[in-house]
Amino acid sequence: MRTFIKAIIAAAALHSATTAAITNMEYLHKQGEQDGLHGNIELSLKGKSGNSNRQTHSVAGQLSYRTGVHQWLTSASAEYGESNKVKDTDNKFIHQRYIHHNSNKLAIEGFVQYQEDTFKLLDSRALVGAGARFKISQKDDDYLFNFGVGAYYTEEVYNLPETATDAEREEKYARANSYINFAKQLTQSTSFSNTLYWQPRLGDIADSYAYNNLAFTVKISEKLALKVTLETQYDSKPVGELEHVDHSYFTSLAYSF
Prior knowledge:
The chain is mainly beta.
């Protein structure tokens, strides 16, 4: 049962390479409670044919290695899509993190991240940050509740029209980072997790990112699971003509090891 609780959080973790600089690593945090190498690979394929033709492919993977109080995490993903043979999705993401487990309740983290998202005008985002993660409550394999807080510095380059200023095209600044995560076992084979992030810009709290990831998981076998995920992203000051809110939902197949 403990292995399944680890797997259900992966639905959120593997689909967090968003335009906002928000990365959900809860799956690998949970895996890191035990020494050794752990990971997850997830594949998703969406398609539509007939009056319109659309295909989207995505692949994501995570690795965790822990020895004693030291843990190293790596997460990467890529997504590509076409609509009527015209590319409309193209994004890439990689995240690396070091965690020092001070106790069963507290961990200190440092991380670096890089991402691109062509159709959300993001040529590149590179960031470095640190924070602390607290385990608020856990009841055996029934539920898990975590809270995290920290900050990061980011450099972002956007693909904007020629009328945009240099300051709009390239930004360098810092944001605070906070999140809460809750995972709950529903039955022997089904469970859900929810992770909520808030990232206000330091010095301008009105410029904020928010992100919520709700995932339901059905266990097929000890290592294989089917997942349905709903994501909501909010940017109070989006670049260009982008919308403030993005919703996405998807079904995927994940293999854990």
